[in-house]
Amino acid sequence: xxxxxxxxxxxxxxxxxxxxxxxxxxxxxxxxxxxxxxxxxxxxxxxxxxxxxxxxxxxxxxxxxxxxxxxxxxxxxxxxxxxxxxxxxxxxxxxxxxxxxxxxxxxxxxxxxxxxxxxxxxxxxxxxxxxxxxxxxxxxxxxxxxxxxxxxxxxxxxxxxxxxxxxxxxxxxxxxxxxxxxxxxxxxxxxxxxxxxxxxxxxxxxxxxxxxxxxxxxxxxxxxxxxxxxxxxxxxxxxxxxxxxxxxxxxxxxxxxxxxxxxxxxxxxxxxxxxxxxxxxxxxxxxxxxxxxxxxxxxxxxxxxxxxxxxxxxxxxxxxxxxxxxxxxxxxxxxxxxxxxxxxxxxxxxxxxxxxxxxxxxxxxxxxxxxxxxxxxxxxxxxxxxxxxxxxxxxxxxxxxxxxxxxxxxxxxxxxxxxxxxxxxxxxxxxxxxxxxxxxxxxxxxxxxxxxxxxxxxxxxxxxxxxxxxxxxxxxxxxxxxxxxxxxxxxxxxxxxxxxxxxxxxxxxxxxxxxxx
Length: 517
Ligand code: TEU
Prior knowledge:
alpha/beta, globular, Immunoglobulin-like, Oligo-1,6-glucosidase, domain 2
C-alpha cells in the first residue's frame, strides 16, 4: 500500500555541483552528498531531490544530458549513486532524481547521429525544419528561454533545429513514439535501481504545437527568464498530460510508493492543476509564493488559492533557478527575518514544502563577478539578464578555510559574502530555527489533518488554524502587533512573542505557532 509520503513530505533540493565536493575538483559530487546526509537528518527533512548528475558537457550544468542512465565522472559513478541511495534509505530519507525529458544534450548519441546522417531515424527524434527566406532564417519567431532565437542552423544539412533553452539542448520531438519508448526504459532503469521519485524538468513543454506557428506575443529576455508568460503556441499542449498518465501507470506498477513532481513553470495555477491527479503526476511545483511580495493580504490570497487548487500544494520559496528569497525579502537580517517568518507559515500548512540547499542557513543571493558567471542565461541574453549563478554558489559548511568545508580545491563558483557568518559550523540562528520548526512540524504532523480555517485579522496579519489545534500567525508589519488569539505558545521566529489570556503579541516580521486546545 502506498503511504503517500509525498503528500506532506519536506523535500530538500540538492544542487549537486554546489553541495559538497569529496575529491577536491571544486565541484560537488555524489560522495559529498553521502557524507553529509546527517546534516539532512539533523535538519529534519523527509527526502532529498538531487539535480542532474548524468554525463553532460555542462552547457547548462547538467540539464543537458548526454546519457540518461549513467553518472558523469565529475559526480562519481553508479556505485557511488547506489551507496548514496542505500545510506539515505538507512536514514529513512527518500531520494528523488531529476529527469530532463524535454531535450537532450547536443552531445547525446541520438543527436550526434541525427546530425551526422539526416536519413537516420534519430533525426525524427528531434525537431529539424527548413528555414524561411530560402533557409537563411529560422522556421518561426520562437525565442529561447535563455534569450536569442530558439533555433540553430545545422550547417551540414541547412536545416534548423529547435532548442527552447541553450543550443546545446536540442528539444526532443514527443510526437515520435520512439521517444516515448526510450523514456519508459529510462524511468524503469531508475525505478529498478530503487529511487523513490522523479522531479520532471520543464514538464509542460514536452509537446510543442505541431504546426510550429509563430508566437503572437514575444517574451522579453526578462519575462522568459521569469517564466511569466503563457506561450500557448509553444508549450502546455493538451497531449502532454497523456505522457504523465503513461508514466503514472509505470510508477504505480512498482511498490506504490514512487512519486513524480513536475516542474510546470506556468503562471496560471489552473493550467498547472491539469498535470496533477491520481492518474498523472503526484505533484507539481507551486511557484506562486515565489511570485508574491512581502504583504500579509497578498500572501493570504496566494496561500488560499494554492490550497483551493492543489490537494495538497507544494510550497516553493527558492530553488536553483530563482533569486534566493532572503534577498527577495530585502536581504541581510531583515531578509532572513522575513524569510523565516514565511517559511514558518508554509511549514504550518498542509502540503509538501520544498527547501533549497542553503536556505536553512539564511543565505542571500551572491554577487558573482561577470568574469565568473557561467549561466547560459547570462551569455545568451548578452548580459541583459544576470543569470542564476547567484543562487548556486557553494554551501559553506565551515566558517573557516578558503574552501569553507565545501572543497579542498578551487570552487567552481566563488562563495557568497555570507559564507563565514552563515556557515553550518557557525550554527546560525536561521539553522537553529529551521531545525526547531521541522522537528515541531514532524511531532504535530499526525494530528494536524488537512483542513485549514482562516482567521480574520488585522491588515498586516495572516492567521489560520489547523484541525489539530495548531494556530499560525504571521505579522508582516514593521512593529509588534497584539492579535486577539491565545493558546500555548509553541514557537516564534523572533524574540518578544508573548501570550496573555486574551491575545498573543507577534513581533514585527515574524510568525508564531500556538496550540489552542
Ligand atoms: O528550468 C525551466 C525553466 O523554465 C527555468 O529555466 C526558468 O524559466 C528560469 O530558469 C527561471 O529563472 C529547468 C531547470 O530548473 C533549469 O535549471 C534548466 O536551465 C532548464 O529547465 C532547462 O533544462
